[in-house]
Amino acid sequence: MSERASSAHISPSAHYTGYVWYLHRLAEPAFVTGFGRFVHGLLAPISWGARVAFDLDIEQFLLQRHLQIDAQLSAAIEHGGVCQVVEIACGLSPRGRRFTARYPQLRYLEADLPLMAARKRLLLQAQGWLGTRHRVRAVDILAADGSQSLASLFAELDRSQPVVVITEGLVNYFELPLIESFWARLAEQLRQFPRATYLTELYPDLREHPRYRQLRWGVGLVGRLTRGSYPLHYRNEAAIVEGFSRCGFTSVEVFDPSRATLALGLPPSKSEGLVRVIEARI
For the chain, what is the total number of helices (H) and then of strands (E)? Predict the structure, then answer.
């Protein structure tokens, strides 16, 4: 597999976001790594400059997407009867820990590339947080078959119960044809459940946005830091709906978290957001 089509370059950014979740009281100290603390400090002057000069707050984008996904997941559990969740590319996300503590009936399966999955498993084990309801598995979203494939991952679930699948901080590391192939294979797996919901975020190619040039600069920086290209996908919300529908999802809703900042417990946004959260259903 070529480096362009490899998923192995994603994990470094998990350390940075893990520290951001901790700073904003979404994660316990166990989720902090020295590398995450170092990178956050290294980027602090750049983040400050982007806020002052361009009104772009990187951490606010991260918090908006994270909390909007949390809100949709809570609704699925409380109103949709969901009792099993799969978080792919879990990295150092604290969501599994927070939601299993909040909802005792929930079964939560975290998955990532082998090295990241092993690190997450050790972290959770050391705190006594792993068990029959909370597990970690290795997965490679590009594997067509074998022990790290989607089929192997979903074989561990109860096919008679609804499911929610989450990917956060994953989609924009891949060119659109490659990530759409993953979505199509994911939709195929989700058809085996009575109800299934997929939650993810993406940064669309909003060329009409007043901060578009600064956004392109910012994602270029992210790409260099994470050794990926970080392409932007789709021109507008209609294109997002069309793309997910083409991949096999039967219902698609697009959320702009910047329009719901107060409900998410965040400061009001001064302009249209740059990140979208997608809720796609089967």
Answer: 9, 7
